[in-house]
Amino acid sequence: MLVFVYGTLTDPDRVDAILDDWSFAGDAILDGLHRVEGRYPTLAPGGRTAGRLLRTPEVATLDGYEGVDRGLYVRVAIPVADRGEDAAVYVGDPARLGVAAQWPGDGPFDRRVRRAVASGDAVVSPGE
Length: 128
Prior knowledge:
Layout: E1 2-5, H1 12-18, E2 23-36, E3 42-55, H2 59-66, E4 73-80, E5 85-92, H3 94-97, H4 109-118, E6 123-126
């Protein structure tokens, strides 16, 4: 599975400490979401974010690292331009991370993120 990473997981030493089976598939740009700094970085609607594409079958391990089961981050699928596949992207809950980022709509954070991403405005492109 491809994963777009934009924080600590862009560092190969950090990835190596967490995953056994992985490789970087190159630099990438995420259009439609921008990086917001907080206790941990997260994303918010609009703009763009530079990162890397990570390929690994160990998504459950990444879910644990990102705190998906604790509601810290939500994993969403965003299309990768010209590849015919999606990349998993982890989006942190601004309220839990202490950042001033807004996601449109009402309801639980994960539903607001999924609705916004489903609009099709976000896309990952291999780096230049």
